[in-house]
Amino acid sequence: MITDKVRPHHLERKALLYVRQSSAHQVLHNRESSALQYAMRDRLTALGWLEIEVIDDDLGRSAAGGVQRAGFERMVAEVCLGKVGAVCAREVSRFARNSRDWQQLIEMCRVVDTVLVDQETIYAPRHGNDRLLLGLKGSLNEYELDLLRQRSLSARYEKARRGELVVSAPVGFVKAGDRYEKDPDRRVQEAITLVFDKVQELGSARQALCWFHEHDLDLPVKQNNGDTSWRRPNYATIHRMIDNPIYGGTYAYGKTAAASGYSAHGVSVKTRRKARTDWLALMPNAHEGYVSWERAEAIRKMVSSNVPTGRHHGAPKHGDALLAGLIRCNRCGRKLTLKYTGAKHGIPRYSCSRAWMDNGAPHCIAFGGLRVDDAIENALLAVVGPGAIAAATAAEKEAGQRRDQVREALGRDLEAARYAADRAFRQYDAADPANRLVAGELEARWNRALTHVAEVEAKIAAHDVAMPVAAVDPLALGLLASNLKTVWSAPTTDARLKKRIVRTIIHEVVADIDDAAAEIVLVVHWIGGVHSEMRLPRRRRGQRNSTSADVITAVCQLVLIANDDVIAGILNRNGLKTGNGNRWTRERVTSMRSNYRIPVFKPAEDGIEPWLNLSNAAKLLQIAPKTLRLAAEAGEIEAIHPLPDGPWIFARAALTTSAAQSITERARQNPRYPAGSHPGQQSLFSSIT
Prior knowledge:
The structure is a single chain. The strands form eight sheets. The protein has a five-stranded mixed beta sheet, sandwiched between helices. Helix 6 packs antiparallel against helix 7 (128-161) and helix 23 (614-621) packs across helix 24. The chain is α+β, with helices and mostly antiparallel strands and 689 residues long. It is built from 25 helices and 22 strands.
């Protein structure tokens, strides 16, 4: 008999009735199932239990193992303490539908001798046959759950492949059976269309967001209850619209996948985005979109390419460097990094330093960007120059047809605000004036609506004052188009606009350095597939405004006999300039000496100078300065003459040599012509004395 499994020691302990349903929907709507589970209390009473405790903490929780069940854990704890004689459920699958929880419960019941009761029979886990049967039922329960899930998902996926599975509609769309339809609110439609227009016009989602914030325009968002509200936009709002194919009239399903993970806090489910090739369904032209599928894809790719990666150039920024994100190293294939140098941080410099930053490898190449940008600019203007006149004519026509998008958006906001105010007035007017509790609240709502109308009207008035209608002069446009170089170099031309033009025409630039020829080699890959090579002379660091090497050599020699003030005068007398084209001063000579580590002139403490000028050297030899100068020019004595219009420099050691003594003796023998011929020079005429 089955009742033989229930012993007196089982009845002495209490019985636990476990009640569970898998979801909140079942709890609310499957009332009959919950009633049948609670009715199992009568079966326990009929079997002889007097103390029965109902555990229904897990209503609305699945037993598949993905969520934590407090009721099941409390039941297992009670069994482990030996206080339970029987655990009961309408079906044993209510206990668990995963092997981990199921085997834990069976093992604990076997150890403490607790029976399991369902609507059909009684199981004693200490009996081998019952334990085998419980194991089979646990496996069947788990398999049944997997089978139901697979069938449900298969049906769901087949419906999605047909494009008929509509789960939820994003903002701007409503569900119409098994397809999407555009929101009938014209204000919502125009706002979403404006988002795509501004992103395409400005080139990035961030710039479009700044434009909406600048003009204080709101965007629609879908709330959890399905209603549409208006709020200040953020970057995620605009990016979701650009990235969602539904706005391009395309049905898409299977864009994300759920991945379960286990941590100290329990099971966590994370949603990961899948590659587009792994989507379950992607059906263009499935419904009416806000933009065409081709335009939506072009905008999405443009926004994706704004992320600076190895394959993408990145969004144009405010810097003056034209090739930021476009130039690549020919030696390692990495993109060149950009750094601005100079006193005002306005001189670009390209360098291949990614290998050094990532792996500590040596730098590949580096060069200044001014000459490179100038060469690319000239080549670019030569390409776009012939079409400038046609572009100016098209711009003139577009200027006459261009809509004031901000004015239209504010007009739609005003219309919606006036409708809300009129609706609030009708509600207030229909209320009973005697019921002040209701009338006071409706009056406050009406006042808030009127205040909002006044705010929108003030925005429109301020916009009309700040944005007067400007007439476009066709002659001025034609003149600017004929002189594109002036427009390009104007200080008011935005650097981001220049970079967008460069990215439109140039795909990439590959750079290298020819060390033998001291040249920068650029290979320009144009969008049309044409490639051109440029070779530019490489300018070394600081060469542009550096001091001449001849001046540095002269200063190194002049410091032997003169201080900085005298040296500045000598340099100016010879017409020499600084690297920036300025006249020399004592401070500039001092700065130049410090930069090139040239020692300063210091007089000897004992008065015996190791280097002498022409006057002091002649005085030491007791001869005329002219005699010494002519001897130095003839090479008879060692001397230094740094500059043509500058002093002669003699070493004291050179004045004690035999050559110096010979010059002195010759000058004394012929005092009338102290600079006469050299004694060793032969005469063309024979002596007559």
